[in-house]
Amino acid sequence: MAPVRRTRRKPAITVTRFDSDRLSSLAEAYIDRNPLVAEALLSELERARVVEDSRIPANVVRMGSTLRFTSDIKEDRRVTLVFPGEANIAEGKVSILTPIGAALIGLSTGQSIDWTARDGRVHRLTVEDV
């Protein structure tokens, strides 16, 4: 019998109206090129609470945010969430169109989420600060 894997409930997330609109368009444009990540991003945006840009708390990950996260595989990284054309892993710039980028959007300090890496493994990350 296969082991039973518990699925954890995803945390509540918040995104700005500007990010929601722009990221929805981006995901739709990438749906044919990278369907898994585009669909993951669209799924996150659909469940997000959307607020006016001026009403987003400072501790929420949004586009352009620099944040520190830890993971279940002992990572402790500082990254900036960026659009695909700005991505540069050597500089810590993570694209929103990667599995980890799509998982980070809308999280706030202290929240954790499971995300599936490109190799299919599921990891848990926690936002330490934004």
Structure notes:
This protein has helices at residues 17-30, 35-47, 99-104; strands at 14-16, 49-51, 66-71, 76-82, 93-95, 112-116, 122-129. By secondary structure, it is an alpha/beta fold. The chain has a single domain, classed as Roll (Chitinase A, domain 3), CATH 3.10.50. The strands form 2 sheets. Strands 5-4-3-7-6 form a 5-stranded mixed β-sheet. Strand 3 (66-71) and strand 4 form a beta hairpin. Helix 1 runs antiparallel to helix 2 (35-47). The longest helix has 14 residues, at 17-30. It is globular.
What features would you highlight for this structure?
single chain; 130 residues; alpha/beta; Chitinase A, domain 3; 5-stranded mixed β-sheet; two-stranded parallel sheet; 3 helices; 25% helix; 27% strand
Shape: globular
Tell me the name of the CATH class.
Answer: Alpha Beta
Helix content: 25-40%
Uncertain spans, ≥5 residues at pLDDT below 50? none
Looking at the structure, the CATH topology is Chitinase A, domain 3
The number of helical segments is: 3
Could you name the CATH homologous superfamily? Transcription elongation factor, GreA/GreB, C-terminal domain
Straight-line N-to-C gap:
42 Å
Question: What is the element string, with H for helices and E for strands?
Answer: EHHEEEEHEE
What's the CATH architecture name? Roll
Strand arrangement in the largest pleated sheet? 5-4-3-7-6
Work out the count of structural domains. Answer: 1
Rg: 14 Å
Largest sheet: 5 strands, mixed
| Strand coverage percent | 25-35%
Task: Give average pLDDT, whole number.
Answer: 92
Which secondary-structure class do the elements indicate? alpha/beta
The tally of beta strands, per DSSP, is 7
